[in-house]
């Protein structure tokens, strides 16, 4: 049983939890909890390391039996140490180190999401979760977004990271993919609180890429420049606009709804 915070495996986990640079360099991220471990295994993701404590719940014990057949290093850790290194408020007694998924470049794409300057981890994770739920399997992220594989984003995503292609790209590369690489080309629509066509009055059944801008500043000028049109969600006067996660979820729902009744 590992009891020391100076253990090399424990130090690796702490590094991956705290450092984007380490996650990128090692091409690894952390998934904590029974639900996330189950999602990872269901998606065929093979962990390189599993840490668990005797406090792991019954479902977690069943997962450990499945993992015992994998090549992953499986180590028991003292409960207090796992609590200390965990990024969650209360550890469920199991933590996986997983390779960051590297999906092949998608072709063709019928609808995609482009996230720009989404800096809140909770919003990012919620958007990815909604994208998975509504069938948006391709999500472009501009460099101004928060790290999609940070612990808070992964936790809020609730398994979306194993269902969605996450591709980090600049605005010009997104435009090139949508207009030149993908066939048929994707119409690029910007979600904006003002000056757009009402979402349910817009034809959202065509192949498209939906841009969602950041919470505070909205989409950057670079992303606005590549948009073919603007779509908006009507609101009552004198009310605060929806945050990025709510806006994205409503519009993805409307896109899915229109396609199902087409």
Strand order of the largest sheet: 7-6-5-10-8-11-9
By DSSP, the count of extended strands is 11
Here the CATH topology of the largest domain equals Alpha/beta knot
Second-tier CATH architecture of the largest domain: 3-Layer(aba) Sandwich
In total, the number of domains comes to 2
Biggest beta sheet summary: 7 strands, parallel
Terminal Cα span: 58 Å
Any idea what the CATH superfamily of the largest domain is called? SPOUT methyltransferase, trefoil knot domain
Give the C-level CATH assignment of the largest domain: Alpha Beta
The stretches of 5 or more residues where confidence is low (pLDDT under 50) are: none
Query: What proportion of the residues is helical, as a percent range?
Result: 25-40%
Number of helices: 10
Query: Rg to the nearest angstrom?
Result: 20 Å
- Shape descriptor reads elongated
Strand content: 15-25%
């Amino acid at each position: 049983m590992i009891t020391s915070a100076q253990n090399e495996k424990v130090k690796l986990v702490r590094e991956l939890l705290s450092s984007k640079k380490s996650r990128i360099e090692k091409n690894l991220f952390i998934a904590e909890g029974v639900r996330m471990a189950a999602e990872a295994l269901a998606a065929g993701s093979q962990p390189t390391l599993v840490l668990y404590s005797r406090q792991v719940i019954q479902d977690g014990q069943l997962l450990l039996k499945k993992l015992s057949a994998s090549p992953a290093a499986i180590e028991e850790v003292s409960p207090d140490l796992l609590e200390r290194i965990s990024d969650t408020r209360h550890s469920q007694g199991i933590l996986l180190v997983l390779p960051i998924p590297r999906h092949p470049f998608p072709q063709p794409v019928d609808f995609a999401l482009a996230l720009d300057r989404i800096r809140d981890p909770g919003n990012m994770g919620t958007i990815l979760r909604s994208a998975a739920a509504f069938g948006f399997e391709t999500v472009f992220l501009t460099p101004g977004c928060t790290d999609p594989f940070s612990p808070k984003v992964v936790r809020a995503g609730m398994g979306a990271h194993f269902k969605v292609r996450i591709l980090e790209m600049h605005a010009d590369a997104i435009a090139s993919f949508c207009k030149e690489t993908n066939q048929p080309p994707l119409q690029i629509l910007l979600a904006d609180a003002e000056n757009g066509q009402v979402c349910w009055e817009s034809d959202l059944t065509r192949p498209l890429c939906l841009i969602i801008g950041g919470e505070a500043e909205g989409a950057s000028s670079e992303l606005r420049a590549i948009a073919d049109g603007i779509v908006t969600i009507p609101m009552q006067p004198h009310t605060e606009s929806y945050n990025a996660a709510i806006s994205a979820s409503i519009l993805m729902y409307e896109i899915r709804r229109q396609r199902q009744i087409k």
